[in-house]
Design a protein that fits this description.
The strands form 2 sheets. A 5-stranded antiparallel β-sheet has the order 6-5-4-7-8. The mean pLDDT is 83. The protein has 136 residues and is mainly beta. The two termini are 25 Å apart. It is built from 2 helices and 8 strands. It has one domain.
Amino acid sequence: MEVPRHWRLKKQRYALVGEICPHCEEKIFPPRDVCPHCGGEAKEQYAFSGLGEVFSYTMMKDAPAGFEDSAPYTVALVKLNEGPIVTAQLTDLDDRPVEIGMPVEMVTRRIRQDGDERGMLIYGYKFRPAGLGTSK
């Protein structure tokens, strides 16, 4: 990932900041210029709570390039309390079984290291079972 792109996406990765459509009031993540629900212009920022539930999930045993050190890991579709569905890795499971409908909360974690001479560590959102207390 290029450094300028990393900084441009920082807000939505660290705080789940999307948009709310002023026309139909749909909450949108990730942010985009046009509301996918009504087609109106959507530029008003909206900070999501980071709370939701597992909508669907899968176990990644054969990880894509750049994520081999994390395998095996669980990736889930998380339905946020405000409506949008986001894709994210689940963390802090500690042998807990993952279930559809399981309540989760967003946490900021290291996603990967870029692996080249820049040595950039890339952080972003993951989700963990809700109610575990402070972040690690």
